[in-house]
């Protein structure tokens, strides 16, 4: 595939003697929703951090939008068009929701008025209207996750990295969040999402990559992956 | 997409509006300015003028500190370095026969550069590690100036007494009102510079950095660069205070221009008045200068340590009751009064929008 938006090429990350990721390669085509799954400790978050620039790869190459972005600082990655959420929500607590969004929008709009307008658009899209003037620190976890998505979206990313934005939500909240993810994707934003919950990710993703012990063990459509014996083994263990 | 009816709406108490750290409106600023302008006319004696001059001067320094320490969250205990840069540069040039205005003006970019140069390595450190590094840098300069020849060493520098005029920034000591109004002018300049920095993108960015550095970087903020920018302006504003201070007392030596207790006092002023609040540092400076003056009169020579005891007590009181400082306490006390006066209309007299007291720190 030549038109990949994100190309991960033999990416490895080692912490001392532990390989959090080892020779991981896959591509994300523009417009797709790609899921990244795997058991606890499989290296999903590390891979995310590397793509977002928050973690330097030990070896390998990252290509985004036709450019080599390996080892870029996080703010450069964000400027290039990689938006991300944090698994443990990291909102700007002393600011209101609107200020959170405006701050993110300032990356593409240097004027306050334009940034505010972008913030309001995003608030509409992410359903943040009811809490727009609340201090972000006072939000419930569900709202904070939504704000995380909104804030990443306000940076006008080409690729959005969603780190477990659906887990920990009630089923109804999760359904709404899935709808928001779909809407964002329909707006032309490519999505790479880490998720634990298989039932949520399967109907949503066009393609799924499975990590286990830091390595890619499977890749394909949700159906293919779900029936892959290696994946079943990784999650449930070997048949007796 | 359907409305998020399922997600719990935050309770009204939580929806108590913006965080109370909004930048001041023109109305508030005009009100405070009017009060400051009237002060030397209401309190006519020279001692009160002296308090006002020092409060405004240290208020400038503390406002500068607050930009970096309060809004950007980088707590520096080395700001005496920039105060000293202003004081020593101004003293050196005025001793050479320069205009004090020009001397002060030249010290500002110098302090900004120095602050950026100090910040470059120190901002690699976080939280108290950063704070400790700032102490170390300032103390090194203190020791160098005390011991190296050429900067007056421990004896300090005296400035020549020249003809009294606005151009020379020297006025009669019998009527100190000119000193006061020049200080007020400089304070307005400093406040305006800080306000201009904070109101747009940069202000949002430094607050984001204070709240969460990783998240700030993830939305595209060059964290290092904005910390440096805040440090540079913060240093320049603090140097303005140092430059004017030396023109007022016509003397500078390492303890009065570069001492650690000076750095600590800037921090105390901001914390006491309301850290991360626009008018907090000025209020804190006013209170501390007043306390210092009273204790020096009451306890003469040993006044220095008594005022520190009182500072300590005040800080303990503030941190126990309201980490938002005296401004936040004032707002909390004012809120019911304003309500009784009729529908929050009276809240206009409060230095910042009421209602913020309900916001958790």
From TrEMBL, chain A:
InterPro entries: AAA+_ATPase, ABC_AA/LPS_Transport, ABC_transporter-like_ATP-bd, BCA_ABC_TP_C, P-loop_NTPase. GO terms for molecular function: ATP binding. Transmembrane segments: none annotated. It holds the Pfam family ABC_tran. Residues 6-238 form the ABC transporter domain. The keyword Secreted does not apply. CDD domains: ABC_Mj1267_LivG_branched. It comes from the Bacteria. Keywords: ATP-binding, Nucleotide-binding, Transport. This is ABC transporter ATP-binding protein. It comes from Plantactinospora endophytica.
From TrEMBL, chain B:
It is a multi-pass membrane protein. Residues 1-20 are annotated as: Disordered. It comes from the Bacteria. The keyword Transmembrane applies. Its main location: membrane. InterPro entries: ABC_transp_permease, LivM-like. This is Amino acid ABC transporter permease. It comes from Plantactinospora endophytica. The lineage of its organism: Bacteria, Bacillati, Actinomycetota, Actinomycetes, Micromonosporales.
